[in-house]
Write a structure and sequence with these properties.
Shape: globular
Helix content: 25-40%
Structural class: alpha/beta
Strand content: 15-25%
Strand order of the largest sheet: 5-6-7-3-8-9
CATH superfamily of the largest domain: P-loop containing nucleotide triphosphate hydrolases
């Protein structure tokens, strides 16, 4: 039998005093394409970091071996042959606020560095250009990284990981934030390179796994509970038709009304001539391709991004200037940008309580009644075990769950959920649907941005599409 490319033997990892991986043994053999699945907090991302060589294992906690070229090699020699994309990597690049172009970002993968240590030689430039051409990335590759949308940055990071033609490609929730076209093209590309590149990926959506997946591992509580051949089975948990709230009367008076609005990011016109309104009970899905301006539109609704001079914007019956803190109390906006910005480290319970003031960190200590409500919400969402844990020590998915609870705790009048299902396990998604149904029945108007139809609660019927810098359609989805 050929020598394994990567071998883990009884590996243990402790993080922040917690035993995160327990006696994990796993092997990547020639020809294998792996899927790593399991609930949030089960240890998937830590395991992928161990495979990649970025995560230290306990000194007396097992053995990690690499033989990517047939002979055993140290981590330092193997790491350049292993490409890597993760939500945490994307958060890092977003926080750096980089001004160089997307094409340069792809080229940095040749050196596995944030910045280019030197100019590219002709062969290196040719390799970067080949990936730009393959995925049709010319437009976004020419723009500064800081101006890219979440999905645009994600696909460039995948291209960056591929530019060195890695022997192994480690992908953690790699399709998050990608529109249907880009997901389809990326999965087709991974199928084409399966003969030379071994893909090891983690995803909560079995439909987003490469079709060449021929082995899987299920993690539970930091242990490998199942090793199997072929792709993992879908873990759909829904037992019956989704409960819908009673129909909410649609008010004549809009909650938000926008007329003649242009929106710029720096000098770039992102939205043009927006005429749009939202009334109570008009639960809405906003669709559009990566980079179309969906998140900017959500920020315009919430009041965190201003319209250019001359627009007429009315929120809750008032024209500006608006009190931003009052708007944040009435409009909760949960997004990838919020997760990147929330870089303080209180307990998870305090993060949820910060939703009462819509602050990052606790500005005003909540009274006993409000804290009790926050604790009860965490219990309903299955987050009780995270209450005392420090926020930045949680996994990406666990932090996402805590920030969702933060957005729900104040029972806002308008709730904007911008691609928040990314990286969430199915059990939590089902629980969240039930809570959103209760909020909608209680008068909260829900706006959802998502590239996946199965993320949408059944009560979300109104549909708007952002394309060509405009809101091009407003229709109603057929009842499921």
């Amino acid at each position: 039998m050929p020598r394994p490319l990567i071998e883990l033997e009884r590996v243990n990892v402790h993080l922040d005093g917690r035993h995160v991986l327990h006696d994990v043994s796993w092997t990547l053999r020639p020809g294998q394409q792996w899927a790593i699945v399991g609930p949030n907090g089960s240890g998937k991302s830590t395991l992928l970091g161990v495979i990649r060589g970025d995560r230290w294992i306990d000194p007396d906690g097992g053995v990690r071996r690499y033989a990517l070229d047939g002979a055993e090699q140290p981590v330092a020699a193997a790491a350049p042959r292993i490409g890597y994309v993760s939500p945490e990597l994307q958060e890092r690049y977003t926080r750096l606020d980089l001004s160089f172009s997307g094409r340069v970002l792809i080229a940095t993968g040749l050196h596995d560095s944030v910045y280019l240590p030197r100019g590219l030689d002709p062969s290196e430039r040719e390799r970067a250009d080949a990936l730009v051409d393959r995925f049709g990335l010319d437009a976004i590759a020419a723009r500064p990284v800081r101006e890219l949308s979440f999905g645009e940055l994600r696909v460039l990071l995948v291209a960056r990981a591929l530019v060195r033609s890695p022997r192994v490609l480690v992908l953690d929730e790699f399709t998050n934030g990608l529109d249907r076209r880009m997901r389809r093209e990326l999965l087709a590309f991974l199928a084409r390179v399966a003969g030379t590149t071994h893909v090891v990926c983690a995803s909560h959506r079995t439909g987003d796994l490469p079709e060449t997946t021929n082995a899987h591992a299920v993690l539970d509580g930091g242990r490998i509970a199942v090793l199997g051949d072929g792709p993992p089975r879908s873990a759909r948990l829904r037992a019956g038709p989704e409960r819908r709230p009673a129909a909410t009367p649609v008010d004549d008076e809009p909650l938000v009304a926008i007329r003649g609005a242009d929106v710029y990011r720096g000098e770039n016109l992102v939205l043009r001539g927006i005429d749009w309104s939202l009334r109570r009970g008009q639960h809405t899905v906003i669709r559009g391709e990566n980079g179309s301006g969906k998140s900017t539109f959500a920020e315009l609704i919430a009041g965190t991004v201003p319209a250019a001079y001359g627009a007429d914007v009315v929120r809750f019956g008032e024209r500006g200037p608006f009190d931003l803190w009052e708007l944040k109390r009435r409009i909760a906006h949960v997004s990838d940008q919020l997760q990147t910005a929330y870089d303080v480290n209180p307990t998870a319970e305090d993060v949820v309580c910060s939703g009462y003031a819509s602050s990052i960190g606790i500005m005003l200590a909540p009274d006993a009644s409000r804290r009790a409500d926050a604790v009860e919400l965490m219990r309903r969402l299955g987050l009780d075990h995270l209450r005392a844990r420090r926020f930045l020590m949680l996994s990406f998915g666990e932090r996402r769950k805590v920030l969702i609870a933060r957005g729900l705790v104040n029972r806002p009048e308008v709730l904007i959920l911008d691609e928040i299902w990314s990286g969430l396990d199915e059990q939590f998604r089902e629980t969240l649907r039930a809570i959103l149904t209760d909020l909608a029945a209680g008068g909260t108007t829900v706006i959802v941005i998502s590239h996946h139809d199965d993320d949408l609660p059944a009560f979300v019927r109104r549909e708007c599409v952002v394309a060509g810098n405009r809101i091009t359609t407003a229709a109603f989805r057929a009842a499921p």
